[in-house]
Amino acid sequence: MECLVDLGWSRTSTTEVARRAGVSRGAQQHHYPTKMVLVAASLEHLLEAQRIAYETAFAILPPERRNVEGALDLLWEVFRGRPAKALMELAVAARTDEELRPLCRDLNERILQVILETFERLFPSTTLPDDFVPTMLRGIFAMFVGLSVQNALDDDADGHQAAVLAQVKSVARLIIPAPGVAGPGTGPDTGTGTGPQAAAPPPDDTA
């Protein structure tokens, strides 16, 4: 991951990985005979590490931030982090690398699946249509990818990315309101809501 972020795909080599890891070339090749085998293992590690880091970070948020706005803030932090930059480097490089492309062909879908599974754990009580959530998260994912590319270039020097995130959170708050707030379609006369409900408590450490 460090090599991908610091050097890019073209300059990442198993020799440099071994040097940074403090192991011999022989030991590295014993576990990962080729660069592609090493990359495949790295992908699995990065995806799982991202999921665990996100859920853990959400679980320790103060109660007033355990909502969809807090979740989006954390997701944006994930997209700006070094593991996400490593995954982005692989995705971009795979466009023109015939050997890397098959390995990364479903990378976006796998990341989306992690985001969807995490969303369902964090917000299990929503009444959103089944086909709405995946499409909504796909749109957010695509937007955050674009924002993260720009952020890697300018670190949001002019605040444009923060402004976009604020607008997205405003819309998300209407779709998934905080605890005790009526969602769309909730009628005061009936006392029953047809709109999405608030986030449930965060998952425990074993999630």
UniProtKB/TrEMBL annotation:
DNA-binding region, residues: 13-32
Keywords attached to this entry: DNA-binding, Repressor, Transcription, Transcription regulation
A family per Pfam: TetR_C_6
Amino acid composition bias (Gly residues), ranges on this chain: 182-194
Keyword flag Transcription regulation: yes
Domain HTH tetR-type: 1-50
Entry keyword annotation includes Transcription: yes
SUPFAM superfamilies linked to this entry: Homeodomain-like, Tetracyclin repressor-like, C-terminal domain
Top-level taxonomic group: Bacteria
Disordered, as annotated region: 180-207
Name under which the protein is recorded: TetR/AcrR family transcriptional regulator
Organism name: Actinomadura fulvescens
